[in-house]
Every structure is written in C-alpha cells, then in structure tokens.
Design a protein that fits this description.
By secondary structure, the protein is an alpha+beta fold. It has two domains: 1-33 and 93-119, Glutaredoxin, CATH 3.40.30.10; 38-88, no CATH class. The chain is built from four helices and four strands; from the N terminus they run βαβαααββ. The protein has a four-stranded mixed β-sheet, sandwiched between helices. Helix 2 (40-50) packs across helix 4 (77-86). It is globular.
Length: 119
C-alpha cells in the first residue's frame, strides 16, 4: 500500500489523520505541502480521486482566499489548480492519497482516512 499525506504539522486534524494512519500500521509518504506545494496537475488528480471539483478543496475561511485579488473563476478547475500551486495555504488539509488503489480522501474528519486503509 502506497499512501501519501499532504500534511501540515501545525494542523490538529492533519496530525490526528497521520496518527490514525500510523496506528493502522501505515507509514505514509509525508508531503509538507506548505514547503513543497503540489503542482497543478497533482491538485487536479487529487480532486478527481476524491470525486470533487478543485473549488471544493479550498479553505474559504483563510485570509489568503478572502483577500485574493488574483483568484480565478471557481468553475475553472485548471486555472484554480494553478492558482493553488502559488497559494498552498488555501488547500484543504489533509489530503490522503492511496497511490495503489487510485483513491483519495480529505481527512476532515480524520476518521475518513480509515476507509483507505480498510478499517
């Protein structure tokens, strides 16, 4: 099983999701997305694996989102994914991807991750 978590260590939900993965015996690849933002193609793929539009991966309460002057049309997934590459703080967290099963979930609540690891 190849699991990747787009993680923010300062976020309690992200830390709890990582803890649940580890308790299930999974050692995920950890991507600290604020330091290494996913490129637009990765964001598009993650949204598709989750089954949502890119707009549904936005943290709309973030100041960076609310004050954005360069925000593209929220219906334009490609443009929005490219924008998120430059504004990773606005990406919902954590996103957990099962690379083998080609599935993904948002760890809100953290227990969502259990469906990826068969628990």
């Amino acid at each position: 099983m190849s699991i990747k978590i787009y993680h923010n260590p300062r976020c309690s939900k992200s830390r709890k999701t990582l803890e649940l993965l580890e308790q299930a015996g999974v050692t995920p690849t950890i991507v600290e997305y604020l330091k290494s933002p996913p490129d637009a193609a990765t964001t598009l793929r993650n949204a598709a694996l989750i089954g949502v539009s890119v707009a549904e991966l936005l943290r709309r309460g973030e100041d960076e989102f609310r004050q954005a002057q360069d925000l593209p049309d929220l219906d334009d997934d490609a443009a929005l994914a490219a924008w998120l590459e430059q504004h990773p703080k606005v990406i919902e967290r954590p996103i957990v991807v099962d690379e083998d099963g080609k599935r993904a979930v948002v760890g809100r609540p953290p227990e969502n991750v259990l469906e990826l690891v068969g628990q």
